[in-house]
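User: My advisor asked me to double-check a structure prediction for Glutamine--scyllo-inositol transaminase before group meeting. I don't want to rely on an old file, so could you generate it fresh from this sequence?
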Amino acid sequence: MLGSDEESEVGKFEKEFKEHLKVNHVAAVANGSAALEISLKSVGVGAGDEVIIPAYTFVATATAVLRNNAVPIMVDIESDHYCIDPDGIEAAITSKTAAIVPVHFGGQIANMDRINSIAESHEIPVVEDAAHAHGSVYKGKYAGNFGDAGCFSFQESKVLTSGEGGAVVTNDDGLDRLVRSYRSCGRNEGRHWYEHFRLGGNYRMTEFQGALLQSQLDRLPDQVRKRTRNGKFLSDSIAKIAGFDPVKDSPGMDQNSHYYYIVNIDRDVFPEADKRTLIDALNAEGIPANEGYPFPLTENAMFREENWDKYGSPYTSDYYGKEYNVKEFDIPVTERACRDTIIISQRVLLADRVEVQDVVDSFAKLSSEFKSG
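Assistant: Sure, here is a fresh prediction for Glutamine--scyllo-inositol transaminase from the sequence you gave:
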């Protein structure tokens, strides 16, 4: 047994999610972090390797690399839609690069045509971090469909949720077999339950989560269509308000699930405005706004203070054999995003139009007050 079968609730969800995404395989796992960790292991990432990730992402994108004894190489994002910059990927590739992990930030989808072209030319696998992008569509295909594997999270704040949970999706039969083995203590399908063929773990999803996700998945298409419509309305409206620039959809996006609705402070209009003050003013109007990531991933104490294991692995490993200095990563767009980005909670995108208009009116009021002040 590898954690699910077609008659189990988890197995039923895997089948339904597979049909929804139009992929060959879905393996449900315990959470999105586990999905990333075992996907990277399954594409061959190991000690001494480097994995390219964006500097503007949740820490799990990096810790999944570290848990495979590999080194995360953090590159900048594109200013238009906050996904990893393909030019940065190309510049960061070395002989040690073992994988590329584009993050579909906030429901946007990264420039997968260019990323895949770069990856293919260097024979590097691509693992999509699609934790923010359930239901987002790029050039007719769902997020998770573009790399060697796609990783989803069903944590409580996500667009598709079961409180916790995750999934690995792939069109590669061999990769799916490895993922299923790693999620279930290293077992192989069809073999005795006490035979363990590789260093796996218990990364399985519960039956309760599988049942809940089936009902949630039924609602997802209509919800994402509504999010896309409301997101377009917000962008068209807020773009007309002095001092605020909505982040544009990635070129080629057909549908944006808007895990985050992202607005930039226009520093040409408000050069000295304090982001926290602006967010507090929006909150006072009843708008669920927050600061997003307040600093780049590189600024986390784990990296700045080098809080690794007692031996300093994986950075001091003989397998790596290079100097690693997180301060050397050049990430000006990420730094600006941390300074100037306002995030509107995704639940607003499911509201009726009158409530969405309240968001627009609050930004307009804020613009007027700050200009007059």
